[in-house]
């Protein structure tokens, strides 16, 4: 592609974004089925699954740098015409994932009981959660290997194979889960075993893909150290998100059952639409990283502008759709009049934020593709500290309810929008070269 600001064809964006959306949606959909299967065992197993599943998600989501960070590094090398080195990033990320996963597995066996008891105070729910979690975390190394696999494959602009691998693993889990829980008689532990089986299959497919590429499989500590530097910033960024979101849920629960239930309804819709918008961000990551790897700052900036406008348009459409559904959709989640009366206090914030979210998530993808993780870390933590967290806890103190909580989210998103727009406009993120940390030019490759 020339140095002129050529637009990326919409078809090319969708070819990357749609399979990525399938991957992002597959896990939440599987969790819904898993919950339905275990739910028929009774309240205690379901509560144990909810707690154990939340802890597992918190651990795995803190390590998403294995996908996002690897995408940024692999995309640059791919754009520079160095596919073998791009795949090698996947090899080293897989070693890193396997090692960290084993460490998590060992630590979980030691600390699962005290952690769960701190959260529940002990009792039957704590026992159920601990039993499920100890089995489920056997799959931690496999989950992290799969994250690494997603990373390097997105970097070389292949989002179709990861979708196939995830569907294969989840398909096996979907078949095994009800069989192990009921006919085999393992109860809720059968759910955890099914999870591990599916995760193992997906990880094996990602490893096989590396072997097919004939990439060297020896660990390279230099590359892994560089990945960890990028990962440090992404972990801190994710921690800021989780602190805010857990605080919002906690304050809603302390305000009252109706408030907590209404917040859950609107929050789940927000989380689902975040997945939809994040698929566009994943496409932006891959394309921006490749453009910078080719040495084309102008192309990368053009892609950033184009994707941001697409995100804005997509967000406006989603906002209009959910504004029109305001009288119907909440009733699909609950028939409780008191809960439905609380929903509007969050609903219109949720609707109004969609265009902002569309731009924010698109620019997140652009800067992640450029490997600008340090700036994203600082911007996210600053927006959380100045906007979201103060409003959340003031809402509890002054009984502002959902309006206060979602005002906090709005300030958080506006803070992120402002900081991301300033960064995008500055152009300082668009560092060309096959690797960002060395400023290496394409000609040196």
What does this structure look like?
InterPro entries: DinF-like, MATE_fam, MdtK-like. One of its GO terms (molecular function) is antiporter activity. It is a multi-pass membrane protein. The chain crosses the membrane at residues 49-69, 90-112, 132-153, 165-186, 192-213, 234-253, 265-288, 309-333, 345-367, 374-394, 400-422. This protein has 445 residues and is mainly α. The chain contains 17 helices and no strands. The protein has 2 domains: 12-219, no CATH class; 245-444, no CATH class. Helix 7 (160-181) runs antiparallel to helix 8 (188-212), helix 11 runs antiparallel to helix 15 and helix 16 packs antiparallel against helix 17.
Radius of gyration: 22 Å
Helical fraction equals over 70%
Number of domains: 2
The topology string of helices and strands comes to HHHHHHHHHHHHHHHHH
| Total helical elements | 17
Give me the count of strands. 0
User: What is the average of the pLDDT values?
Assistant: 90
Subcellular location: Cell membrane
Family: Belongs to the multi antimicrobial extrusion (MATE) (TC 2.A.66.1) family.
Keywords: Cell membrane, Membrane, Transmembrane, Transmembrane helix, Transport
Pfam family, one: MatE
